[in-house]
Amino acid sequence: MDPVEIVNPGGQAALLLIGDHAGNLVPAALGDLGVSDADRARHIGWDIGVDALGRQLADRLDAVFVRQRYSRLVIDCNRDPMSAEAVPDASDGTPVPGNMGADRGPRVAEIHIPYQAAIAAALAGRPTDHALVSLHSFTPVMAGVVRPWQIGVLHAGGNDRLALRLLAWLTARGDLVVGDNEPYRMDGTDHSVPRHCFPAGRPYVELEVRQDLIGDTAGVAAMAAVLAEGLLAAL
Q: What SS3 state is found at 147?
C-alpha cells in the first residue's frame, strides 16, 4: 500500500497539514513486529486521533493534509532515517522484537523517502509564506507522570512567528492549558519541520494535542474548531 494518503488534494489554504504518525499499519512482510494488536493501537504505535483531526482541519480550512499510513514502530518518519529512534528496539518499555537487528533499508526506501517526498511535492511551487502545520498527539500520562497540558505548541527557531502567534492566541483564550514546547521540545530529533521549513524560512508550527481530548468524534470536532480558528487568526 502507498505509505502516503493526500486528503483534500485540491485544498487552497495557505498552509499544509502533515501527519507523520497518522497511521498504524504494519507491512505484511513484517508480520506484527512481535508487538500485540493492543500495544500497536496504543500511543507507541501512532499518534491517536491525528488522522481524524487532520481530516477535520483539512475540511474546515480547505487545506491539503499529507498523512503517513504506517506505524511509527515500523519507521518513525519524524526522525532522521539513520537514527536509532527511527526504528526502535523498544518504545515506552514495550520491546519491538521485529526491529532488533532489522535491515532498515527497505523501510526507508518504501515509507520514509516517499512520505518526505510527498511533503516536498505538496510544498513545491507554493509561496514560502505558506505554512507547514505538523500534527501530533501525546498520551495523558507518561512514565506515571500526569501531563496537564491540553495542547502543546512546539517551535525551535527558524521562522517561528506563526507558532508564537498561535501560542499567544491559544493562551489568551483562558480556557486551555497550553504548553510552550511542552510536553516535548522541538529539538534535533525532529525531522520533518526542520527539513522542509528551516532552509526556506517557511513559517511552521508543530502541534501536540492530548489524546484523551481527541479520542472520539465529539472531541475531534471540538478541537478542530479551536485549532482552525486559531490557525486562521495566527495566519
A: coil
Q: Which residue has the cell 523517502?
A: 113
Task: Give the chain's residues under pLDDT 70.
Answer: none
Helix 161-173, helix 217-234: angle, nearest 10: 120
User: Do 41 and 24 meet the contact criterion of CB atoms below 8 Å apart?
Assistant: yes
Is the Cβ–Cβ distance between 32 and 99 less than 8 Å? no
List alpha helices for the chain, DSSP H.
Answer: 37-40, 50-61, 105-107, 113-123, 161-173, 192-197, 217-234
Taking a C-beta distance cutoff of 8 angstroms, is the pair 193, 132 a contact?
yes
Strands 64-68 and 15-19: parallel
Cβ density class 144-168: b for 16+ within 10 Å, e for less = eeebebbbbbbbbebbbebbebbbe
Per-residue pLDDT reduced to its tens digit, 84-98: 999 999 999 999 999
Rounded Cα–Cα distance for residues 227 and 151 (Å): 10
Mind listing the pLDDT tens digit for each residue in 37-69? 999 999 999 999 999 999 999 999 999 999 999
- Taking CA atoms, 73 is separated from 59, 69, 145, 150, in Å, by 29, 12, 23, 25
